[in-house]
Amino acid sequence: MTEKQNNWTANVHELFGGDCKIFTSNKSGGVYQLHVWDKDEGKMYWKSLRTKHLETALEKGKDDYINITARVNQGKKIFSDDVTTVAKRFLDWKNADVKSGTIVKGRLT
């Protein structure tokens, strides 16, 4: 566990070789936050740990990090699909209905 600091964050504690960061921000009022970078989806997982006590925050952060990595290792996603992905999947599903004759092409458009 290392402790770093910059202008935006304070009391930064890195866990698991820097893969997990627990810190307070200048605007959090002393409440600890959790940051985990998801390499597969290319997004930052950010969560409030809802505590101002360092030991409790470290414990909660470790538990959350282990749960996140377990989900990723099982092939599950942490984040939901965005609207464009869901809309494309829906249109592909309706195109299959047009090909099978369930609906007409005019209904799809």
Q: What is the tally of helical segments?
A: 3
Nearest-integer average pLDDT: 90
Could you tell me the radius of gyration in angstroms?
Answer: 21 Å
Structural class: alpha+beta
Strand content: 25-35%
What sort of overall outline do the alpha carbons produce when their principal axes are compared? Answer: elongated
For the secondary structure, the number of strands is: 5
Span from first to last CA?
A: 56 Å
| Major β-sheet strand ordering | 1-2-3-4-5
Helix and strand sequence: EEEEEHHH
Assign a percent range to the helix content. 25-40%
Can you tell me the residue ranges where pLDDT is under 50 for at least 5 consecutive residues?
none
The major pleated sheet works out as:
5 strands, antiparallel
Count of discrete structural domains: 2
Quick structural summary:
The protein is an alpha+beta fold and 109 residues long.
What characteristics describe this protein?
single chain; 109 residues; alpha+beta; 2 domains; 5-stranded antiparallel β-sheet; 39% helix
If you had to describe this structure to a student in words, what would you say it looks like?
The chain is an alpha+beta fold and 109 residues long. The protein folds into two domains: 2-78; 79-109. 39% of the residues lie in helices and 26% in strands. The chain has three helices and five strands, in the order E-E-E-E-E-H-H-H. It has a five-stranded antiparallel sheet, covered by helices on one side. A hairpin with a 4-residue loop joins strand 2 (9-15) and strand 3 (20-25). The longest helix is centred in the middle third of the chain and has 20 residues, at 54-73. It starts with a strand and ends with a helix. The model has no long low-confidence stretch (mean pLDDT 90).
